Amino acid sequence: MLLTLLPLWNYRIAKPFKQLLEEGISLEMYYCIRTLQWGGGIMTMSELAQYTKMQKQQMTQMVNRLVEQGLVERIYEPSNRRIIKIHLTDKAAEYLEQFLEHDAGCFRPLLEEMTPQDIADFKKGLELLINVFSSMSCNCHDQHDVVTSMKENAVLQDK
Q1: How far apart are CA 33 and CA 38, in angstroms?
Q2: Residue 95: in which H helix or E strand, if any?
Q3: In 38-79, which ranges are E strands?
Q4: What Rg, from alpha-carbon coordinates, does the chain have?
Q5: E strand or H helix at 30, and its extent?
Q6: What span, in angstroms and rounded, lies between the C-alpha atoms of 30 and 113?
Q7: Of 55-59, 104-108, 130-134, where does mean pLDDT reach its minimum?
Q8: Contact 34/146 with Cβ under 8 angstroms?
């Protein structure tokens, strides 16, 4: 069933979503800044890499691109400069707010194709997926806060 869902999800959800992203912002970059937002706007490089399931080398490259775009900044821990925290900038917060307010409306035509029962079923399915994936371990000590924020965000987005 998952392999049947993936192409349908790609063409109906993922592909239209990718087209909304600004020039220079990849889907992975968007995921990173959303994960940071859910985590309270700041995480260590290791936490972000663990949560996103990226290798540290890949995360370093991703953070470099996010820094170049002005979406995050690196903060070095004064007591231990080996610890690097990634902090969302105001520009990232503005981008996410604008994106959710204006651009996510691209899904309106998809929802308009659905009957009220389809919408209720779709919502229930999304809630179930969020709960299942949120309960899975990511080996990140702040997982509870991130997962709680993701669930709260999902409730807010429903409105």
Answers
A1: 9
A2: helix 90-102
A3: 42-44, 72-77
A4: 17
A5: helix 27-38
A6: 27
A7: 104-108
A8: no
